[in-house]
Amino acid sequence: MIGGTQDNGTHRYSGDPAWELSDGGDGGFTAIDPSIPTRMCHEYVGTTFYRSDSAGAPGTWALKNSGITGAAQFYAPFILDPSNSDVCYF
Q: Are 30 and 49 a contacting pair, CB within 8 Å?
């Protein structure tokens, strides 16, 4: 499991006794790729989007270009395309 916590980063739970800080900063919406469960995504603010291919392990997040410019909500809701998880809709 993975979840964003505003002002307190993004946390993951992998069956250990406690949640773990996965990435710092402002944690927003999150997603797990259903076809590749070790691929996790989270947003920072606006449409700043990160992806980990290592089950969200700390230090494995890479910034991905959302391709969106202009204003957005502080946390812009997103979803991975169910047919192609390389596509994300904000």
A: no
